[in-house]
Hints:
Elements: H1 4-16, H2 25-30, E1 35-40, E2 43-52, E3 57-65, H3 74-88, E4 93-98, H4 101-106, E5 110-111, H5 118-123, E6 137-142, H6 143-149, E7 165-166
Amino acid sequence: MRDVPALFRLINFYAEQRLLLPRSLADLCESVEDFFVGAERGRVVAGGALKLYDNDVAEIRSLCVEPGLKNSGLGRALTGRLLSEAERRGLKTVFALTVAPEFFFKCRFQEAPRENFPLKIWRDCLLCPKFFQCDEKTVAFDLTAERAVNSTLPAEAAAVPAVSAFR
């Protein structure tokens, strides 16, 4: 819970630029268990959530890095950590809706039809202010296919640049 105010500021900084959807303090408090944060000297410098939709599928949402640390590898490391958590939970697919699909492509996500994630549409998209003019792309990471090819997820999960810990 101590990380919520910092997450709120960081997420809503990007929401003001229309790069992320805004999150309320109440929403963050309710979903705090979904979040992993990157911390440097006890200060939150990155965050992202893994929201479960069912036993097989989760979404990476509210992924953000402190502006001064962009391009440091921290976003990729946090994405790797979230994928590792999804793997630990035995999920099959992790997806994201994003205005920055290029970032996710670098993390080996593939573009995917939004219709592949009907629970997301029914639970979140219908209530979203962007619903009728959505500019987000849907990307997905197939953990099942990754397991068949490799026994490990992206190396970014192990390399944690610019932070002392993910928690």
